[in-house]
Amino acid sequence: MLPWFSNGKFPLYLAPMAGVSDMIFRQLCKERGADVLVTEFVSSEGVFRRNHRTRGYIEFGAMERPIGVQLFGGNAEHMGEAARQVVGWVQPDFIDLNFGCPVNKVVAKNGGSALLKDCPTLGKVAAAVVRAVAPLPVTAKIRTGWDEKTVNAVAVARQLESLGIAALAVHGRTRAQGYSGAADWDVIAEVAAAVSIPVIGNGDLFTAADIALRKRETGIAGAMIGRAAMSSPWIFSQTKHFLATGMLLPLPEPAEKWALIQRHCELAVAQCGRNAACKAGEAGLSIEDLAMRSMRGRLMAYSKGMPASKMLREKFQRVSSLGEVAEIARTHLATCLEAA
Fold it and tell me: What would the pLDDT profile of 276-300 be if each residue is shown by its tens digit?
């Protein structure tokens, strides 16, 4: 059994999100109560070919443990070898298999959720990776199915359990849904009842109360938080407090959120400065400008729920320096004080 599920623990996972759950963001969430982290997904082919850029995606710090490296691919032999290489490179606490990504460029390569409609290949991939890294645990993430006509999460879960998968995260949407519509928690509950391995529920978990409700009603052993963490990384500590006491913590004050935003930006600039590939990026841009351009989408997510969020989004679309972020923060905080 994975130790983070022992003794009645209900671990909170940060969902692996491409372009989001990088080392900086994972560590910020860890500081705010995330129990288990998973890297951004990486291509088994990139690892298999020892692509330097791919290796950068799987690096992590000691404070991030327990952490898993998530791989995707449809070639069982290559997936097994890639998993073995990853274990040799960074010694993660587990390997996670991506059988849920709905993105076309992943599905087109018979990766991610494409394998939900090719269960024989899915089984070969899972078995190969379990063999390759034993005794290191292997987990997996799936969706409810390919589309509403082929909802097969229970059958897939049983197959994966029989092949030695140690835990399973289930996103409550089909591949056809993408991220639209409502997550189907009835299917997640069916999966949790059908297997003896821990099932981690994922989908439409926006508040501590949402997570407590799903824990109570579905029999899940843990929760995986994705989009909500992008705007509110403190959802982890808020959820832990609510599960322990039944009481909701107040939302952070604007000043606390701005401190987090500015720290994230500073860390992003510092990381960009250490990254040779980043330095060789767009001609004519400073490291700070380049880093802040890449942060714009992240800043837009942070603005969700903040006072005057529309105005903030307009400013974040053009931000290119730490000084600009500091000035936006100063002006916004002054406005918040005046409105109080």
Answer: 555 545 556 788 999 999 999 999 9
Q: Which domains does the chain have, with CATH numbers?
A: 3-245 (3.20.20.70), 254-339 (no CATH)
Residues tagged active-site: 101
What is the 3-state secondary structure of the chain?
CCHHHHHHCCCEEECCCCCCCCHHHHHHHHHCCCCEEECCCEEHHHHHCCCHHHHHHCCCCHHHCCEEEEEECCCHHHHHHHHHHHHHHHCCCEEEEEECCCCHHHHCCCCHHHHHHCHHHHHHHHHHHHHHHCCCCEEEEEEEECCHHHECHHHHHHHHHHCCCCCEEEEEEECCCCCCCCCCHHHHHHHHHHCCCCEEEECCCCCHHHHHHHHHHHCCCEEEECHHHHHCCCHHHHHHHHHHHCCCCCCCCHHHHHHHHHHHHHHHHHHHHHCHHHHCCCCCCCHHHHHHHHHHHHHHHHCCCCCCHHHHHHHHCCCCCHHHHHHHHHHHHHHHHHHC
pTM of the model: 0.94
